[in-house]
Task: structure prediction
Amino acid sequence: MERINLAPQIRASISPVEDLLREAGKIAQASGKRLFLVGGVVRDILLGRKSIDIDLTIEGDALEFASHLPLTRISSHPQFGTVKLKEGNINIDIACARSETYPHPGSLPQVRWSTMEEDLARRDFTINAMAFLLSPADFGDLLDPYQGRRDLEEGIIRVLHKQSFQDDATRILRALRYKGRFGFKFAPPTLNLVLKDRKMLHTISGDRIRREIEFWLREEEPEKIFGDAHQLGVLKEIYSELSWNEEIDLRFRKARKFKNSSLYLALLTYQLSLPQGEEFIRLLKFPRQQAKVIREIITLKESKHLESPASPYVVWEILQGYSWQAVYAFCLSQEGPASHNAKLYVEELLPKSPFLSGRELKERGVPPGPYMGKMLQRIRKARFSGEVKTPEEEKKVVEDFLRSFPPP
Result:
């Protein structure tokens, strides 16, 4: 096989840790081991992308090897043979080379230590099944047994074997993420496997599926991924009541400037009823904060309180307990007075918090408790009406209120 050395590309992409990688390669070689740079970082280097997450694999004991590196240890998992280290703002994960077998579809794999060649054979796609050797004499040599570099150049996502999605159906969700991120296409056999094996998602636990969806929501253009998932029938396998259309796509694109995953989640679940929302939360085991956003957006949709024009203070009273993500998603998903009121809250009322802090109000003689609540109510009404525009004007409102309605 032709030798391909890409040390200059490594230097260009991850120059802050090049010296560290060279030193690590020397340490591994001194103990008779081979050390590799692997996975997504290799893919990103070949694509000319910067990366701050470094994955290393050693043919041997990762924890013992890590003890020789002058890095800060974050965590280690002896049962899995992995350790996480840190160098500045760069995360470095080190693992033992291993092979995997799956006792049944959707199960976690059974692992045994192996060579790097066997380790690459267990990976999901050809574009992730590449490695750079870090030994001193061969630093930057590319190990590419499945022609991943060629697939990168041609913009193709290809699984390594036809049982791949049956072994681990979350790979379907990962494939869609890469397709959306890079603008790639599926190799025809891989596309056929997605269509054939999408029901295997039902063999995966809800929290594993949710974690993959969270990755989708953090992408630059998540609407592309959801659109593809809908078109290929994958979205329905995640949850039967989810759908996608041009309107939802447009709302996602309007929300893109915020790059906020909770906002996207609210836009996605706006279509659900409250019982469906609760079922979705339960199935995918959403944590408390995400579950709150889902419940809020559906509650806002089913509520009628914002459908009529209202004063700024009334709008504040209705919406003050909701997250801004749910309110803004409601604004993007609604029309008429309801949308106007939601937009007013997010764009004008939320930024108009009182100039004086709670501590400053106490110093001016405002006692905590119900009286403080009434004082804040008076301040907000004054701010929303335009009566108060400066800290000095707000201080005068406080003084007038204290004189007119002395605290008990």
Remarks:
- The two ends are 88 Å apart (CA to CA).
- Residues 98 and 112 are 5 Å apart (CA to CA).
